[in-house]
Structures are given as C-alpha cells and as structure tokens.
Amino acid sequence: MFKKPNCPVIALEEHYWDAELAKHFAGIEAGRPGPIADRLHDLGDLRLKEMDAANIDIQVLSHGAPSTQKLAAEVAAEVTRGVNDRLAAACARHPTRFAGFAALPTAVPAAAADELERCVTKLGFKGAMIHGMANGVFMDDKRFWPIYERAEKLDVPLYMHPGVPDPRVMEAYYNDYAKDFPMVVRAAWGYTVETATLGIRMVLSGVFDKYPKLKIILGHLGETLPFLVWRIDMALARPGQESVSFRDVFCNNFWITTSGNFSNPALLCCVQEMGVDRILFAVDYPFVANPPATDWMATAPLCDEDKAKILSGNAKRLLKM
Is 284 noted as a catalytic residue in this protein? Predict the structure, then answer.
C-alpha cells in the first residue's frame, strides 16, 4: 500500500473523453462501452474516488487520442474551443484536484497557436497535449512551427503523446499479428516507435535551434529514447552528416513521465541519462490503474528527496503549479 509522502502527488498523463467531440468520430476512436469508457467520461466522483484510493492529489487532464487532431480544417478551431472550454469548466468544479492540458486544432496551425495561448492565459491550462501525427503529417513539419513558437513564448510544455501508426506502417510491420495481438499496434510497441520517431525527427528538424527554450514532454519513460540516447548521439556524430548533438537537445529540452512504465531498471536508466529533475510522475489513467503506479513509487530505489521531485516537485516547476 502506497504510503502518503510528505509532498503532493501530481499525475501528468491522465485522460478523459469529451462526449461532444466523440460525435465527430466513429469506431474505436469514439470510444467503446465498458469500464474504461466509463472512467474516460467521468470527471467527478468515480475519478476522485480512485485518485483518493491511490493517494493522488492532482491529475493534469488531457483528452484521449486522437483528440482534436483529425478534425477537418473548416471545423477544427471551433470544435476544439468547445472541448477546451468544457475541460476548463470541469477543472473549475474541482480546482484543487484537476488541471488541464489543452487540445489543439492542428489542422489549422495558426489557430492552434492562438488556442494554446487562449487556454494558457485565459483558462489557466498548463500546456497542451499533441497526439501522434496530424492528418498523416509528422509534427516536426514546418507548417506546425507556429505552435512551437507560441509554446516557447508562453513558456509552457507540449506533451507529445502516441498516436496510431500510419496505415503504411501498419501494413508493413503489424498487420500479420494485429488481429491476434491488437496491442502490438498500440501500447506494446507501435505507440513507442511512432513517438520515439517523432522525438528524433523534432531534434533533426532544427526546431530547437529556432526555439531553443521549447519544452517537450514524452510519456512512458521517454519512449525508449533515454536507453538509446548514447547510440543515437554517437551515430549522428559520424562524418558526412550535418552537425547535431542529439544528447544535448534531448537532455535539455525534453522531460519524461512514468506513465504506464513502472520498471525500476528503466527508471534508473532514465535517472542516469537525464537526471532526476527531468522525470515526472504519471499513471496513464484510466488505461492503466492508479494503484500500481503509486505502489511502485513507494518502493522505487530512490531516496525520499528524489521521489518527492518525481511525484510533484518537478511538475510544480515545469508547469508552474
């Protein structure tokens, strides 16, 4: 049983679902009935009860994938504004328990930048969450750089969350096994590959040269990148390439969370490569239950001071909470 530490517990990758937005999607993207769907749609008693049972003080709420990123350009800004207004209202009903990451209408990058600013300055949101690609385009593409310019100006992070792989990748890599092992496309492997690839592409794109104070969060203990940072950095330093220090950018512009990856060896690797100040607590609720996350932190091989940083100290500094 997780013993309440002498610090708040702030969880950063905790999802919900907006019923109005769901009307724009079909199939799995609209949510399937069941216990997870019930929790995604609950921003009240059930969620708070399960937070209390695991001694989680605050959830930073973010809309589940694909959020507003597959909306058509002609409706994206208006629909997204409603999604964020409803999230702000939910946070206002429980101001000591909930905070928010904005959804963004990435189909219209200029409007997405404006919506980020509105959500931060008017609604009190702590940043935004972006899910995978935007209508088939990787988020490192220069058309999206106005979002990064605004995030740097506002000094808020962008949480890069996984999305479903491109259909061409699905066909080449996963379709042989997707029927019998559907999670291989998602949390077991596909999500990790897609999001780690985006992280690498962001560094290679030069966006951090243009916006050197841009802050990016990756979940799931960094989507394997902390384990691979030495090798990536070494390979990119070989002669005959443009000059880029992957390690410098990754360890200075990225933060990572514990969402859905409660492994001591993985955690210690991340601490050694990035430092404990860049690791943030998260669960990935309701796709992952709360108790395993807090129970794990109780026994993690770290001193109490470092646990307090991960559980809330680092989030307080990054999100200005």
Answer: yes
- Kindly report, residue by residue over 71-123, the tens digit of the pLDDT: 999 999 999 999 999 999 999 999 999 999 999 999 999 999 999 999 999 99
What is the residue type of 133? M
**According to the model, what pLDDT value does residue 292 have?**
97
| Domain spans in the chain, listed from the N-terminal domain onward | 10-319
How far is 85 from 156, CA to CA, in rounded Å? 19
DSSP 126-152: --EEEES-BTTB-TTSGGGHHHHHHHH
Compute CA distances 48 → 44, 70, 106, 308, whole Å: 6, 30, 31, 22
**Residue 307 to residue 263: CA distance in whole angstroms:** 14
Q: What pTM was estimated for this model as a whole?
A: 0.96
Q: Is the pLDDT of residue 155 over 80?
A: yes
Q: In Å, what is the CA distance from 3 to each residue of 9, 48, 56, 294, 301? A: 11, 18, 11, 9, 15
| Residue 309 tokens, joined | 């940083």
Triad 199, 280, 61: Cα angle to 5°: 85
The CATH superfamily assigned to 10-319 is Metal-dependent hydrolases (3.20.20.140)
Catalytic residue among 284, 295, 304, 306: 284
d(CA 127, CA 60): 10
